[in-house]
Hints:
The complex is a heterodimer. Chain A contains 11 helices and no strands. Chain A is mainly α. The longest helix of chain A is centred in the first third of the chain and has 32 residues, at 55-86. Chain A is globular and about 75 Å long. Chain B folds into 2 domains: 38-141, no CATH class; 171-384, Orthogonal Bundle (MetI-like fold), CATH 1.10.3720.10. Chain B has 19 helices and 2 strands. Chain B has helices spanning 2-31, 38-42, 44-49, 60-80, 84-93, 99-111, 116-123, 130-138, 146-150, 171-202, 208-220, 223-234, 239-246, 260-285, 289-296, 301-329, 333-338, 346-355, 360-384; strands at residues 154-157, 160-163. The radius of gyration of chain B is 29 Å and the shape is elongated. The two termini of chain B are 37 Å apart. The chains are: A mainly alpha, B mainly alpha.
Amino acid sequence: MRVLLWAFGLAVLLFLLLPVLAILPLSFSAGGFLHYPLPGFSLRWYRDFLASDFWLPALGNSLVVGLGASALAVAFGTPAAFGLWRARLPFQGAILAVLLAPLAVPGIVVAVALLLAFGRWGLANSHAGLILAHAMLGVPFVVVSVLASLAQFDPLLLRAAASCGATPLHAFRRICLPRIAPGIAAGALFAFATSLDEVVVALFLGGPGQRTLPRQMFAGLGDQISLTVLAAACVMVALSVLLLALGTRLRRR
Amino acid sequence: MPRRLGAFLLVAPLLAGLLLGFLGPIAGFLLRAVRDVEVAAALPATLRSLRDWDGGTVPDEAFAALATDLRAARLRDRATGAGILARAGARLNHAAPGLRSLLPATARRVAEPGEDRARILAAGAAWSSPATWAAIRAAGGPLTDLHLLAAFDLRRGVAGIEAVPAEARLYRQVVLRTVAIGASVTLACLLLGYPLAWLIATAPPRAAPWMLGAVLLPFWTSLVVRSAAWMVLLQREGVVNATLLRAGLVEAPLPLLFNRFAVLVAMVHILLPFMVLPILAALREIDPRLPRAAASLGAGPVRVFRRVVLPLSLPGVGAGCLLVLVQALGFYVTPALLGGPEDQMLAWFIGFNASRTVNWSMAAALSLVLLAAIALLVGLYGRLVGFQRVAPA
């Protein structure tokens, strides 16, 4: 019974891991086929990736949009979480529902609604518009993550700081901020990862100038898949592993 | 009070930003499902002239008003490129087929000198039929249920609400398909995910982090990358077919891609971590003394699981099912990449209506259906279980 369960569980784990692991070596193929055995190893598809006119700019766009969205989400999400923690506001539940709403609305509805509104405001087909949209999608993670780390923070410390003559801002910066920094960083990381992964909003809201890495991959996945797309997939997986490792370290602290 | 005010001032920027930049646009978009503005924007005088019309012979002043409206709309379209006439024509085409092209054609006619009524009637035979004018009057707004009905393949006929002809039906099937795909993916995730979560929860302390890592790695890997992986695996000349052919298990490559099978497999793969993580969290919270106590009282392993472990892990199961189902219903990328035309879900048709046919109203009506389904699920869950456990892991 126990053996059977282990076999089943390991099979499910393989099902989770294998698809991604199976395609990564293909990107190092010397040939152009999408199956094994490889005719030999080469880095030609990575050379293609680096030399092409659109993959590197797409990577650049992804990083710029991700960093911008993450910074914006932290700048607005951290004070909001602190405010929610400081005092019980009237309509606290409704406020929290608004702040977390971006988690619940399907991407396609967000994409189409923002395309309509941002188009009118002149924000469609611009980096600013995409950064703003991704920041709104990422901000719930910042709020939740900062609230979680504030739950471990003793508010008495703030009062102690105030009684020693610190202004509220000073007390926040010197006493609270260092303690909730891992929570803020985790939220920023999650917001960045969300933006890096996001494709539907980027597809609808962005113009040709806002091709991000996932959007470029989506466009390249037709009937004829070039192995350059797989090289790009490898780059994205490497980024994800990096983020996962960072996230795990943050959780340990 | 000052503390509350200070706290509120900290929350206010984000709250205002999200209300204006997120919920506002979504509400405005969804309102398009029931607003009827296109015809009122293009033909205001015509609508006024038809207000007291009895449905019989079309009055002369209606022809005069139509000519005035068309001339004005044509001038505005030329000056701004707003496409007022095109949109009104597209809207009227639902009830009076042919008006999509007839409206601009008539506008060109009445721009030339001559008597209005004669030129309008010369532009197309539809103008001599009272039904055309009735369609204009019915589309005058400000509210309509046209698009919401259309989302269920219904329309308003002479005798009230009726089903559209069989060959024009589309969305009822799309809604059912979306629910069916969502439900099957959720069920499959539960069947695969629960044993895995239980295994991780009971694994030796050295193995558990690695097993959890194997769940988290795909969780952090981009959705597009994982869809791409399945495309490469399942292609006609992809990894799976090549392997099967070489092993001699099949004679010819299997058609594994662009069908329901591919969509379901990839969606289960993508959403499985959302099932495993909450169940694992629930299982880890169970006091280990409880199953031991049950065993010491003489219950066999199966009975311990059924009577103690399973009931205590049900909140995690509920959270996992909610997370998977809500996300599955809104899937766009994976069916678009891996499915055929018969496998596209509601999200694809929302995108199609918004970007290709520029029918915002239909896109909004379908979005309302999707959001209503999600709100129903979330509300039901809140009633039955509560929301303490939805945050994964």
